[in-house]
Amino acid sequence: MSAATSVAVFTDNDFEKVNGVTTALTAVLAHVPDDLRVRVYTASRLGADRPDYLALPSWGMGIPFYGEMQMYWPPYRAFVARLRRDRVDVIHLTTPGPVGLAALAAARHLRLPLVGSFHTDLAAYTTMLSGRPALGTFMQRYMRWLYGHCERVLVPSAATQALLTASGTPSRRIGVWARGVDTERFTPDLRSAEVRAQWRANDRRPVMLYVGRVSKEKRVDQLPALHDALVRLGVDHRLVVVGEGPWRAELSRRCPDALCLGTLGRDRLAEVYASADLFVFPSTTDTAGNVVLEAQASGLPVLVSGAGGPREQMLPDVTGAVCADAVEAWVVQAARLLTDPGRRRLMGAAARSYARSRRWDQALRPLYDTYRRAVRMPEAEPAPALPGRVRPRHVA
Q1: pLDDT digits (tens, 9 = 90+) for 62-75
Q2: H-type helices in the chain, by residue range?
């Protein structure tokens, strides 16, 4: 019997963070088949050393434009020593941050195959948060340079595949690794009358829920406009927001009657989903949108933007609606669902059924197959040059 292929997954998203990347990587570890051995490598404030998760303690720094969030400087030599000890066969790069650069350096140093997965459109985020398109262009070129070293790049949606192809990544190097959802954790069975009473919600005052980062790149500035328009139309509702971010204070100022719950643990979040009535996710920059699947698994109809990956996580006019950019389109669809309990129930049931077809064990097959093939992949073509005067360096 041949030995299992050993894979090291490098990420800047240590598991103290709660986001789409950590959700996906937690699923990767939970469903690993017998012929693979997968371990996450990261750096964090608190160290951890488990068979499937290594977090080396390090010092943190604020992420540009995300000052309240930390990334950690990777102890490169310690990583290389651990890779040798673990007899790693394949390195998986999931991040363009410092740990991602350490993954690239280690793969080159140890002559190991490098595969990548693209999770966040940082070029779009940089442009929106900085207001400087030139910075966004530089980030796009940097991402192309970094992922250009990967022999295979996996993306979560066809929209992201088109984005990378348009930016110059050869289509033959790109594959789709769609996202899944845990329908046992996220279920309508967790609906709580007590929670709804605390929210002062009922059938005549349904709950409109948003879950995600409370920041401009998620287009949460649409929420006050949507809320105010519904109020003017006489559509009673309760706006509930889960998440943190730099726009939370502004959201609370513009929607003083909204309930902002901050960041929640998975169990509490599942109860909140199930206790709501409609899920709205206006982001146009998300590459996937795990929260859209989680909401549907919880029995909620969903409203999503027509751009980016979230629209690929639902069935238009069956489990929810795809809305045009203008807030008026969101108002029409939200009002239709908030005022029609029967329509919500039908779409919610369809949403639950659809989510059950998106199991993680099925969604992860392209990733695991990529690991298996990686040890047999030919050497990648030379990566494009990094723009400007910046030159890659090994992380010390």
Answers
A1: 766 565 567 788 99
A2: 20-30, 76-85, 98-110, 122-130, 133-147, 158-166, 193-198, 222-232, 248-254, 266-275, 290-297, 327-338, 341-356, 360-363, 365-374
